[in-house]
Design a protein that fits this description.
heterodimer; A: about 325 residues; alpha/beta; Rossmann fold; five-stranded mixed beta sheet; about 20% strand; B: about 325 residues; five-stranded parallel beta sheet; two-stranded antiparallel ribbon; 11 helices; 7 strands
Chain lengths: ~325, ~325
Amino acid sequence: MTEMTMTGAINQAIDQEMARDTRVFVAGEDVRVGGPFGTEAGLLDKYGPKRVVNTAISELALTGLGVGAAAVGLRPIIEIMIMDFVTVAMDQIVNQMAKMKYMLGGQATLPIVVTTHAGIDSSSAAQHSGSLEAWFCHVPGLKVVMPSNAYDAKGLLAASIRDDNPVIFISNKRCMQTSGDVPEGDYLVPLGVADIKRPGKDVTLVVTGRMVLEGLEAASELAREGIEVEVIDPRTLSPLDFTTILESVRKTNRAVVAHEAVEFCGVGAEIAATISDRAFDDLDAPVKRVGAPFTPVPFAPMLEDIYRPDKDAIVRTVRELLTG
Amino acid sequence: MGDLTDSDLLAMYRQMLRMREFDERAAVLMEQARIHGSVHLYCGEEAVGVGVCQALNPDDYITSTHRGHGHLLAKGGDPVRMYAELYAKSTGYNRGKGGSMHLAALDLGMIGANGIVAAGAPIALGVAYASAYQENNRVTVCFFGDGASNEGAFHEAMNMASILKAPLVFVCENNGYGEWSTTESQTSVADIADRAAAYDMPGVIVDGMDVMAVYEAAEQAVGRARDGHGPTLIECKTYRFYDHVGRDFGVLQRDEAEIAEWRARDPILLFGRQLKEKGILTDKDAEHAAAEVQKEMEEAIATAEAEPDPVPEDLYRDVYTEGASA
């Protein structure tokens, strides 16, 4: 085990998978200098420009490059620097890579990973702060992965690269500098399997990305009041591990879902609806959600602070749920 | 006629006849509502598909467009499986899940028609990049229309293909119309080939009704790509004999004189004349070939029509690839 940041863990996963399989390559803007977050650091020297493809600022062509290369047998990792920039590449993601296998009657296999960086951080404002994961969960044919820590990030990314389907791999910017123990060698964290980050008996808290960190802090705070929160990180948002979530709810009889994305029509809505549908008789109270308000992400730090869903919002919601 | 043998030339002639016959019949099937969805007819543009694909090796790749039946035939597509797809049969190329606009045959190097204008360009870039990566000496041709040349995807792909020196040939089928508006009303340049200059690649204009002119331009561009010198843009000036969708969608009235002028330069008539002048084809051969092709397509339709439909379970099939094979 080595302590490293989530950025370092992602870099190691890409490195190890490229070493393991010569079909794997990475393409993106500024990858030759390691990418702005450092996720491709050192790869150019090790693997050369053919496998570390520094592209133009052309998200659509860059993503299409991945689709075409995958269709004829390669395993591309396509980096879209900031999640808001996926809007430029949407046709290739939604109409091409997601649908190609189905539309071609199974002829195509598209092992592509689109890595991107999401979330609110340091007054990046409305076009560099988005958490757009729900858009991709709505598209059949894609898998959507969202790690919250270094260990999961490395194992999930390795599993994503080895998966034969297109995977949207979303790293929250504020998770990326957090550190944790990570094995040096390669390992897989399977897609579609949630992780119980903290067991508890009173409330089920389903949290994604950075909200996992906030949720764990909230759980510690609530534990001091005698409230035992079970914190579940789905890790993969599509396919979603409802089995683990529903088992937990059947035990706790209460659930809160929290994410950094806009609450309206977010992934939390799907989770809340499914809990209500499939565990209605086990619920002692309605499922509550925590998410961002229905506005673009603001620039002013004081507005950003109000906007950002955090530990306090989770604590407040759990208390309401238990007393309300 | 260059390096082509008489039998190559006759095969090209026959291929053009097959494309025409396939689509003339597809149009009727659509009007009779015997097939599903809509078809975009390649009639009038046969010289492009045949001329370009004649310059390719069997293992080279193409990406196609919504007007792509001719492209798949040129890559060796089986008309039975093509019609079966139009009939939404389970034995169609796409198992009845794609239809006309998504026809693909990866094993023939036909990466796919596409319902999104210009979407094939970035994909072709990726396919071509993969060939350079795998050092397999294959070339990719990206077929696209004049309308696609106004999409961002086209420009991004041209730029990146040039930077990466991808073994790629961009072939524009300029048929004078983008959907129901003239090319001239939606395009900043008179010649789309001029756009190549912006991406530091050769831009070539050819008579898209003359299959030999297309072949010669394609052969040069394909050779250049295969030798590692990067992409070329070829603009083929051609004409859509019919409407954007089907034969007559009813919203666009074209000048009859304009249609007649292009019909007089029908690529099949033109090539037939060239072959007859060279003594390679006789009137009798031409009649015989036409009759054989008619029979082939008639039988293909009859076979396709009788093929099995998908089963309900197919709805959920092939959304994902199960497991990880890596």
